[in-house]
Amino acid sequence: MKQENQWFFFSSIPQEFLAPGHSRKILAHNPALMCVHNHFGTGASGADHRHPHAQLSYILSGRFEFRVGEETKILRPGDSVSVLPHQTHGCLCLEEGVVLDIFSPMREDFLKQESGKT
To answer: Distance (Å, rounded) from C-alpha 117 to C-alpha 67?
Structure first.
């Protein structure tokens, strides 16, 4: 099975503006995995939600309050968190930064949202 696209260059990926202070770029992906670059301004949040995908989040910069289930922790650059499928989670950006999210399988809903933008 040949992959449609295997090269993803950050400078040519469109930035999606999701909510005040939160934008993302959908990086490399295939049916099994997806990598997403999320930029948050101070005070921006990722509302509590859940989905059927496994998720790993890695803090590239900034400082974040992450909630997973009933637990809340402060994460800084180099820290990461694992979120199981269907587990409620969210975050609050305490200091402007970037979170790299990895999903398995790929978030097809993200690609549909991206293609629906003009």
So the answer is: 30
- What lies within 8 Å, CB to CB, of 39 at 6+ separation is 22, 23, 24, 97, 98
Please tell me the pTM assigned to this model.
0.90
CA-to-CA separations, 47 to 7, 8, 24, 29, 88, in angstroms, rounded: 31, 28, 15, 24, 10
pLDDT at 102: 98
- pLDDT confidence of 117, banded at 50, 70, 90? low
CA angle at residue 73 from 81 to 63, to 5 degrees? 85
At 2 the pLDDT is 53
Confidence check: pLDDT of 118 > 80: no
DSSP state of 4: S
Tokens of 42: 């101070």
Q: Which of 55, 57, 104, 46 is nearest to 80 (CA)?
A: 57
